[in-house]
Amino acid sequence: MKTKIVSLAFIICCVVLSCSKKQENSIGKTFDYSSVKTPEFSVDSAYYFVEKQCSFGPRIPESKAAEECGDWIIAFLQDKADTVYIQEFTSSLWNGREVKGRNIIASFNLEATERVLLSSHWDSRMWADHDKDSSLHHTPLLGANDGASGVGVLLEIARIVKSNNSMKQGLDIVLFDLEDQGAPQWADDVAEDQSDWCLGSQHWAKNLHIPYYNAKYGILLDMVGSSDIRFTKEYASMSFAPSIMNNVWKVAKDLGFGNIFIDSREGSVMDDHIFINRYANIPTIDIVQNSADGSFFPYWHTTKDNMDCIDKASLGKVGKVLLTTFFAAEQ
């Protein structure tokens, strides 16, 4: 997860781009979403998937932990999805160093022409550059919340969807690599457009895993597992895909989570959804932690972003919102 965007030029760019898009369709029907029948989301299972990722260690570029964790995620999804695409790529970090990455794409119900995109990033940051202890600023992170939490929710959804053979919609789960490797706080000559972040989604959005891939809408998850989750209507999401975000927030409200999914338009974040919207032209929103004090969460980009941050109930609420949003269109 990246810094909050305050660039006026960027915000104007988002608005112009969003206005140039065709008005996206509503993702669901107008009714009480609490009546939607969904499969049960297992919070224990989602928590295990977060914990499993962290057990490999920091999932930083070209590390043994990243190789082993990526292989585990791929094997898990190959057992659940109809097809798994592994998109290998090379990209440059903020300092010019070239590193290899892997995007992992799991597709369900391949015959469906109407598709939904769910995504998160599975890497963790190389530097704890926001740690209070400056001696730890070069320490790699476990990224339990910033990375693993979103993936954990999506792996549980993959487990659930496998057993639903009557789906009318197709589902694609995209897990991006090299998302969280943007310039550290001590870096000089940082890119003003923050294009040194979200390298995996930039590659995927410019080089889709199958030609002419498209989805009705997309939802990105980032930092969704802490005990004090708070999500607001992130500015870029509202610029690119307002009807998607409004519908998802209505789902949350109908499910009784209106105190978590706050009906307030706040801030813009440099995250993977920017490039999905900009290059893949898929209306995509970001469900991302936004603390009331304007920060992400207390242990963002610190060594304390570990399993102590993760709350099962939070994973369950986010998972329930995603399942309800998806299955509302099935009924």
Description:
By secondary structure, this protein is an alpha/beta fold. It has a single domain (4-180, 191-328), classed as Zn peptidases (Aminopeptidase). 35% of the residues lie in helices and 18% in strands. The chain is built from nine helices and ten strands. It has helices spanning 8-20, 43-55, 64-80, 144-162, 199-206, 235-240, 242-254, 272-280, 312-328, and strands at 4-5, 83-92, 98-108, 115-121, 170-176, 217-222, 231-234, 261-266, 268-269, 284-288. The chain has a six-stranded mixed β-sheet, sandwiched between helices. A hairpin with a 5-residue loop joins β2 and β3 (98-108). α2 (43-55) packs across α9 (312-328) and α7 (242-254) packs across α9 (312-328). The protein is globular and about 55 Å long. The two termini are 35 Å apart. The relative contact order is 0.21. The model is unreliable at 15-26 (pLDDT under 50).
